[in-house]
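Case study 2.
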Amino acid sequence: MKPSRILLFVSACALVFAASCKTGLFNGQTDQSAPQTNNLPAPVVVDGVRTSYADIVDKTSPAVVRIATERKEEVSERTPYGDLFHDLIPRQQQPQQRRERGAGSGVVINADGTILTNHHVIDGADKIIVQMVDNKTFEAKVVGSDPPSDLAVLKIEAENLPFLTLGDSDKVRVGDIVLAIGNPLGIGQTVTAGIISAKGRRTGLSDGSSFQDFLQTDAPINRGNSGGALVNVNGELIGINSQILAGGASGGNIGIGFAIPSNMAKNVLEQILREGKVRRGMLGISIQDLTDDVAEGLDLKGTKGVLVANVTSGSAAEKAGIKRGDVITGINGEKLEDGNSLRNKVAGTPPGTDVKVTLIREGKEQEVTATLDEFKIPGQTDGKQQKEGGDDSKSGGKLGLDLKPLTPDDAQQLGVPSDVKGLVVVAVDPNGAAADEGITRGDVIMEVNRQPVETLDQMQKAIEKAGDRSILLLVARRNQVSYLTVKPK
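Prediction:
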């Protein structure tokens, strides 16, 4: 072909390509006049590049189910007149009941009908219905449920079901491609794609009764996805979708979703199937991550490790010789990244197990052996409010606090351990230094610059001694104890 003809041919192809783009052939739209090829399998890999996740979806989606729940709730009879005409207005003999319905997702993890889902999906349900992808339905029974991890195990009477294999979530890397499969917003099974955005996430402040080590993903997740599957490109289950961070009044997806790692789910699953419940180890310490300010206040070099803020009397930690102010850097030779990793590592170890704890005390590294206690969910208080201070309360001066000595009744009402001693915060100046650091009414100040304070005079002298320097406080809030620094105004 002559050069001029080649040039003419290339120009014609360019014109065809431009016209195709304009009509939508290359921007995802369909030319209605062209023959349809919907019956052909989508190409997965072209020139070494994946063009579809259809093979993964075909492999995994049949094992993801819809879970519908029903709860019966008694409704009290009320009239516009309250109880004024209680004896005059006829009433039904039986109390009225209202059925409350909910929905979520679940994952079949064994061909015999064993299903993993979230605790919050089935919590309080009187009836649980599982719907397969082919619309077959089964009534499910709860094998066991674990609120601290937000996991539950269900069982349906079925055989030879499609199921997913649990992958190793420890091998998941930030940036890995993942698919989220579930039943969001009641519209039916939906698949979304994204990546692992972060690992080891926590959502909000823990009350000490939950264990979180979430995989974060930007794969769109919405209400109803809870309990669904997060799978990798090998079709392995690496997470159980659990929570979202939602923005605006709609509470919809903003690209920040959280899944319970498969390794945590596997541990919970095995214990529930074996014993019907989950048992966790416990050291008996309050911990916090180190900051520059706290490290400086404790004369520590660097911020690596986890600070022991308090040691429970009679606990495994106390018996092992762990003390307040120690910095724990490892468990059984494994280095710790933060307090959450320490907490999950200990919780994942059976009670009664001996663990070697590496710590730094007064600049020197030590190793102690602790025999773990069994974790118990902290008891709830009766919710009574601490009374305002009277004649025995006094201003915290430059900190902007009104304080009073802690009494046993105060400790019980505030939900702090009985061995805690200190001063109760009965009022906080909203413009004061303490308020800036988050100290609130009901907190108990145990130490000032590492010196115990049980009287108002001790508190006042400690503050005066600090001068204009930052003050290190040890504060108890309910069952948690932590250090924080306050810069007097």
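The longest strand covers residues 96-110.
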